[in-house]
Amino acid sequence: MWDGGVDDGDADIDWAAVEVEAAGGVFAGGFDDDDDGATGEAAPVVETRQTGSRRAPQERQLKERQPGERAAARKPVGGKSIAAPGQKARIRAETSEALATGVQTLIVEPDEADMRLDRFLTARFPQLAFTHIQRIVRKGELRVDGGRVKPNDRLKAGQSVRIPPLKLTEARPTGRTPRQDEDDAAYLRSLILYEDKDLMVLNKPMGLAVQGGSGTHRHVDGMLESMRDKAGQKPRLVHRLDKDTAGCLVIAKTRLAAATLGKSFRSRVTRKIYWALVAGVPRVKQGRISTYIAKEEDPDGESRMGVAQHGDDGASHAVTYYALVENSAQKVSWVSLKPVTGRTHQLRVHTAHMGHPIVGDPKYFNVENWELPGGIQKKLHLLARRIIIPHPRDGRPIDVTAPLPPHMAQTWNLLGFDASRYDPIVESPEE
């Protein structure tokens, strides 16, 4: 059983839990002990570091293909490209077919491996309407290695993609100006916590959406248009954060990095730690929350996520580890959270399900007759504090920490919380 009262943080921690059946899920935790008393210096502004990998590095580094370089061609001293054996015949056949019927056959390049089919088509044909992509796939007009596919199927390097005659729309004006590009690029650079030639980690502020939507015009994905490289390649989102969640957001600079980093998130190799301020004090200081989560409607008809039962329509399993770091007058608590899965609104749903919703959450805060302590802003107190992810080239872990956003820093100062103290969540299991 995990004893949460260790001062030095070095004692062995047993996360094997006493499981208590809860409606729709399992709540499990350790003993109800005092939290640790370790303290440190003033809160750091930004911590960014690379650590030694726990896993053996990949045996071979991936070489990024330069713009214009083709896999199957080689250049002699004279400067003319000589096609590999059989390539000339294949190119002639493909060209003849395309001219006669409008049909094209594309080969998936290594740096396009693991891309979703719809994103592959969007990248190859920026002027192709998304609705047209859905239609030609649904009707079976587009084939991969001769077989029918779905828009979200992922491609493998070397696969053959048969493209029917396309209806390309004219490029729509983006409405962006050079001044806007300059301003957006400067703003995004001011948010960078870590950067190299393959990826960057941004400190996303609260209130900035990651992607566009109804009524959302300013968002990270749109601003990334200002950071296209010389080859016209736009940095890509690898994951998402809620609009009102601040902290670490990973951006890939190349298609290869996007595919590799995306695989790290899907395989749960990436480790994420969040900080939150919640109402009340969890009776069990450290534990594991395991439920099913599905989309539902609240009494006002608004869509939201909620705890569901196994087998319910659209229900997905969600697991979160949590640890109480400190509390203030039994009124509010600083908790550290480590999601094992990555469901929509998972942490917000799980803390509310535990009976301790996140302070400032307009959608899931469910404590009646609860008053916000004086001096604390009514904003979502949730921070994507730290992320550890294997580098897409060599597997070395990139370890990045984000500072508290202004409204949470104000709350931490008001309550006397020390952001540099030991975080017990680092000892929790990975699954």
UniProtKB/TrEMBL annotation:
Belongs to the pseudouridine synthase RluA family. The keyword Transmembrane helix does not apply. It comes from the Bacteria. The lineage of its organism: Bacteria, Pseudomonadati, Pseudomonadota, Alphaproteobacteria, Hyphomicrobiales. This is Ribosomal large subunit pseudouridine synthase D. It comes from Camelimonas fluminis. InterPro entries: PsdUridine_synth_cat_dom_sf, PsdUridine_synth_RluA-like_CS, PsdUridine_synth_RluC/D, PsdUridine_synth_RsuA/RluA, RluA_PseudoU_synthase, S4_RNA-bd, S4_RNA-bd_sf. Residues 27-88 are annotated as: Disordered. Residues 56-72 have a biased composition (Basic and acidic residues). Coiled coil: none annotated. The keyword Acetylation does not apply. Residues 115-174 form the RNA-binding S4 domain. Keywords: Isomerase, RNA-binding. It is an enzyme of class 5 (isomerase). Its EC number is 5.4.99.23. It catalyses: uridine(1911/1915/1917) in 23S rRNA = pseudouridine(1911/1915/1917) in 23S rRNA. PROSITE patterns: PSI_RLU, S4.
